[in-house]
Predict the structure.
Amino acid sequence: MMPLLAVEGVSKSFGGVSANRSVSVKVGEGEIVGLIGPNGSGKTTLFNSIVGFHPVDAGSIAFAGREITTLRVPRIARLGLLRTFQQTRIYSKMTCMENMAVSAPNRGVRLRRMLSRHPPEVADKSEALLEFVGLYSKRFLRAGDLSFGQQKLLEFAMALMNEPRMLLLDEPTAGINPTLINGLIDRLQRANADLGITLFVIEHNMRVIMNLATRIYCLAHGELLAEGPPEAIQTDQRVVDAYLGAS
Amino acid sequence: MTGVGRTAADGASRRFVVLCLVIGAISIIAPFVFPAIVKQLSIFWVMVIVAYTWDTMGGQLGYNSFGNIVFFGAGLYISAIIQIAPFTNMRAYTAAGEQGSALALSMGQYLGGLAPGLIAGALMGFALAFAFGFVILGLRGHYFAIGTLALGIFIAQIFANWEYVGAGSGITMPDLPGRGRASDQDKSLLFYFLCFALAAATVVFLRWLYATRFGLAINAIRDDEDKAEAMGIATTLYKVVAWSVSGFFLGICGALYGNIVRFVDPEETAFDGPGLGVWMVLMAVLGGKGSLWGPLIGAVLFHATKELLWTYLLGFQNIALGLLVVVIVVFFPEGIMGWIRARWPRLFGERVDLGAQSEAAR
């Protein structure tokens, strides 16, 4: 079966720094796949390459059987491949409800659609998803007034609002308090199981990623170091060395 | 304000209609109560329009434009050409400059030139904003601001050297016929009501626009353009359309303004970057960027202050105006509406709602 996301030999360098060297990754429909690696190993660069944030130097990227290597960010997002940001990004001066409404899918760019109001279903769905992430009571507050952890949850709800086929999550639990993390893992799994959203997750919290992912890729110094199920990755000597520093 | 959150929107609609009726009634009575200052009142509505159209870019979209004056000036010039050229030799008329007498037209000719002039102004403003938008709106933040500043200077220079439209010495606009003395035109109700109608149309149109998907999307671009792109919003198109809307209303506004001041000069009326081009920013910032009533409040305060300063502090008016700017920036960085919103957020529907639905997690 064809994978939903196929990254083939992607390289990207910034000046003299080679951030990704011939990285190949495959994510199947419905999977939850992890991406780990020490700081500066090129995880976020790989995400940026996939979503079209910058052009790649070499290699190709396909989503749902379609070549997307040279497409730009909004175009790829409209195909249903969405990313969240490491530094949480929400629309700070808009209320949570407005943040949600503006995230409703924009599949076609047509003037009449642009100049129409959101149908009531959008408000219903916004409320349901805010309830889902536990922000229902905060829905009329400006997003910028929420705490960092709440903004992270809002960003996740906004991503779900967009009805993506696949979500690239860049450190979804960073900065979230430990008691909330379990709730977030549970929600990620429900989004995957109930809504059928494929997840590709960068995560530094090993407990989270080992619980969440069925398969993990490990990057180090811009190259793919290892790939396999969580148990195998955990005990892989190369991965341990990369994190702790081999002699 | 944006239609998300249904009960709040209904209340806001009722409030909007009531406010509009009150302001409309005052505006219709005003020129009859103060017949001596009809011209000032007309210019007040011009101020309102430029403040609102600036706010579409600076407040709602978050792109601080110093080039909006271009669409104003272009509308002014195209209308001047259409109002004069069909009735006389344009080149000879402009060559005579201020020494020549103003063109005398019949009422039919006058209105027959004015109507297409206003329409052409609108189209010109729209088309220029659309064309420049694709080039300049690729710039962000300060780069965009500087780019638009350069655009204003560039266009002003072109007109200042274009002999057909009088180059640096300008054009005298035709007199409004049926009046004995030109000074009567100052009291012209025609332009007062045209300006008022345009201002009202601008506010009502923008209020509707801001409540559509388009309105939310440009707010999203203001708050975080990268995020908006990552969520699939075709940002360039939205930005260009927002500027074109500004350009459309500014084009008509410029055309009206030329007829009110009756003398078109490239640097002091049409492309008055250091004057009107900056005032439109000040008014929106003073009233509160990105709010529906902010530009109106800003225009009232600014125009009143400015007229009083010019009358009572002549010679020091620019110093006083500068002080006003400092006071705004220091004490009301978010403008008056922003200050009110920060103090009484509940007035704007910001509230914690511990409603019937339980929280899945806290």
